[in-house]
Amino acid sequence: MNVLLLTQEKGAYSLASANDKKSDTTEPAINNTRNKVNLKNLKTTGNRSCALIQYFCDMRGAHLKQVKIKDISVDHTDQKNPVLTGDHDFPKVDLATTHGVIQRTWDGGETESKGQQLISELEQLNIYSDNTAKSTALCSSKISTHHALNGAVSIPLSFSFQTPQALLNINHALIKIDEFQKTKAFDTNNNPSYLIKADHGTWGKGITFYKKCDVGTLKNDLTTNAFSPFVLQAYVKPTAFAGADKSKNISAHQRVVVGRNQKGDCHVFGGLHVQRNGSLVSNTHGTEGALHVSPLTDCSEAIQKDLFHAADLLELNQFGADVIVDDHDQHYILELNDGQGISGPQLEQQHIPEKYVDSFLERLKAAN
């Protein structure tokens, strides 16, 4: 099977051996064998997730070619034989012999948009995509995700605002959130009541928290700054899992990694508990507070049911879900990430990279 990996940054690996023989992204070091090395000993350069995808594709005998999204385009000059092309140093890729494609983006913006466009073009050429262009577009937009999941699975009480005119409904939304917080016996003096999420934001960026006493500031921020689409959401106070210090700000969530098998059934591959003492955003890329990370051990049946339903609604094959659980043991899906993290000691110990590649290759084989 010939597979393309569209990415922001390539990754390569090297295998330590008696001769210190190295492998890169172009020459498979292992052919169709499952005699893998301990990932702790797998040296990588560039993006480690991409390097691990390369490694496990090489192990399975799949020929993977990594290409940077910003460098390439689909050339339809010969409509019967379109090719993937780039600058003068880029060797053309025959798309007629390409069977599948994976997209890995994590910064959003133009790279993500171009990646979605490339995936769409490749799908029209009957090249199987891990997650479709439609699915990745839904995931990249907080508003689209909200519309797709609202009323179907458990998400925080949310209201989307796509135009400046929609701000006329802000008071109604704030009242509904206040009513919701009362049902939780929520301490509005020491906790935020509302948060605003930019429609497109990554790594915890574009999120602003407001206490109930700051509602005037919230309205002023929305009316005086240049308008950008956003989601207004009720703040959910999480249950801490790693213990809490004296900091007032505690954030915690589950990162659940989900994938499908060749029959289309979803399974939880593993995941993480992520907590920050000293920050309202428990993102691993953040810098505030003290970060605590441990393997996910208790993804409940109720959470799994909602995540699998969400996967069907967004037509996702693989994703990472951020899920928060409050003090009343109620879970809420915060967001779904189609380019989920698969590297790092905690995830690699759970064999997430291997499961990720196997999920894709099994479905690719069934599709071809």
Strand and helix map with partners:
Blueprint lengths: L1 E6 L3 E4 L28 E4 L1 H13 L2 E6 L4 E3 L7 E3 L7 E2 L5 E5 L4 H16 L3 E2 L3 H8 L1 H8 L8 E4 L8 H14 L10 E5 L8 E4 L4 H10 L5 E5 L15 E11 L5 E12 L12 E6 L5 H14 L3 E8 L5 E7 L7 H5 L2 H16 L1
Parallel strand pairs: 1-4, 1-8, 8-9
Antiparallel strand pairs: 2-3, 5-6, 6-7, 10-13, 11-12, 11-13, 14-15, 14-17, 15-16, 17-18
Overview of this structure, please?
This protein is an alpha+beta fold and about 375 residues long. The chain contains nine helices and 18 strands. It has helices at about 50-60, 110-125, 135-140, 140-150, 170-185, 215-225, 300-315, 345-350, 350-365; strands at about 1-5, 10-15, 45, 65-70, 75, 85, 95, 100-105, 130, 160, 195-200, 205-210, 230-235, 250-260, 265-275, 290-295, 320-325, 330-335. It is globular and about 60 Å long.
Tell me, what's the shape? globular
Give the helices and strands as they follow along the chain.
EEEHEEEEEHEHHEHEEHEEEEHEEHH
Low-confidence stretches: 18-34
What is the strand content? 25-35%
Structural class: alpha+beta
Name the helicity range: 25-40%
**Mean of all residue-level pLDDT scores:** 89
Structure summary, number of beta strands = 18
Q: Nearest-angstrom radius of gyration?
A: 22 Å
State the end-to-end CA separation.
9 Å
How many helices? The count is: 9
What does the main sheet amount to?
5 strands, antiparallel
The largest sheet has its strands arranged as 16-15-14-17-18
